[in-house]
Amino acid sequence: MPTHVPVFIATTLLLAMLPGASQAMMIRQVLEGGQRTVRGTLAGNATGFLLWSTAAAAGLSAALLASPHAYAILHIAGGIVLMVLGVNTLRTAFTTASTGLPRESGRRTGFAGGYLTGLSTNLGNPKAGVFAVSVLPQFVTAKGPVFLSTVALGALWALVSASWYLLLTWAVGRGRALVSRPAVLRGLSVTTGVVLVGLGAAVAAGI
Known about the structure:
The structure is a single chain. By secondary structure, the protein is mostly helical. The chain has nine helices and no strands. It has helices at residues 5-17, 21-32, 35-66, 70-95, 110-123, 126-135, 146-174, 176-179, 182-205. Helix 2 runs antiparallel to helix 3. The longest helix has 32 residues, at 35-66. The chain is globular.
């Protein structure tokens, strides 16, 4: 069964808060696409998380059946991945003067278009893949329904991320200038980077 659920929620929330492709996409969608496009993008992004977690669940089940030490290895690997993400986030925060929103040619609008954009962005995001394969499995014990527990965590991952992006898109709509300020984005990056490093160390140590 899943363990350390509060830590898992905090970890997925921090990852969602990290400036990156998904966050830039959400900001662009709310500024240019309208509410139907945003809702479709949120749904597509959540579907991507479910697909990643289902793939990870299948691989985790096979690994645990093949080796009794697989869980311990995944536990340590997951912590290392979190620490690397935290360090990279801090490095980017201190070396990047500003964070711009990438432009996309032929951007799709409407719910269906937003859904395809959210899904393709999520499935093409290497951070989501690394988290699903290396970090998500270490929150599941080797006892119990491993596959179902991992998929359940994936659903929780999708819910937490969607909740953050809902808050983000609301904030962008209410105060566009504040959200887009480089100083605000840099402060967010520093905070999440420090916490990710701490969480990674705790996860790798088995705390």
